[in-house]
Each structure stands twice: as C-alpha cells, then as structure tokens.
Amino acid sequence: MWLACLLAGLLAACGAEPVAETGLKPHEASLQLRDATVRANLIPTGNLSEAMARQYGIERGEGTVLLLVSVRRPADGGQVSLPARVSATATDLHGTQQTIELRELEAGGFLDHAGTFQARPRDTLTFAVEVRREGEPPATLRFNHDF
C-alpha cells in the first residue's frame, strides 16, 4: 500500500492526469516471503507526466500499462531494496501470453523492476511475476486484473 501511496503522490506532484479521467485504475498485489515483500503495481502510462515518463524511459500511450515490481525488506525503521532477478508474463482469457520485459529502475534510493505491456479495455489478464533471489527458492506472485 505504501508504494501505491508514494506513486499517487508522485503522479500528483508531476501533474499527471487523475486516474478517474483515464478510465483505468492503478492496481497493487503483494506476496510476503520469509524476510521480504514483493509488490507489483500496475499503472496506466497515461497517468504519468511526460517529464516522469521521459526520466524513467517509459513510453506513454493509450492501452500501455506500466508494471512496477519491488522486492524489499524492513531495515532501520524503513525499507531497503533487495537484489533479485524478476520476470513477468501477462496472459489473457484466450491463453495468449505476453512476456513483460523488465529492467532495473532506480528511483528515490530504491531499485525496482519496470516494464510496459499492452492492455485493451475489457481485458482480464493473469499476471505471473517470478522473483529469484540468491540463496532463496524462487517465488511467484500471481494475480488477475480487469481493465
């Protein structure tokens, strides 16, 4: 939830369009691991300001959605990013799968994994976000989202 609040604040500070005007809403899912939390956020790229999109190398567009994944653990009253290899796919109800190419993105002292994909209105997508950390078994966060 904290990441969604942070993103909402960033979007507002950057002059992004309100979510209600785009018709698409941000979505957050999370998975608690032994010592860490994996969070996945879906954000319509139309909600990002041009400056923010340019800063992070994200192309804004109708039907383009940003998947932002963080792997963090509590530390000294805050949180710290954990190194991980993250991969993701989105599958529609017809079984068509698209791989979401993720890249590491540094923002605000945190390391996240970000990638964009296409979604159409009325799509229902099932996401599989696989996280591999050294010395830990792989973990998969699965969730659905209706667009």
TrEMBL record:
InterPro entries: DUF4426. It comes from the Bacteria. Gene3D superfamilies: Domain of unknown function DUF4426. Residues 34-147 form the DUF4426 domain. This is DUF4426 domain-containing protein.
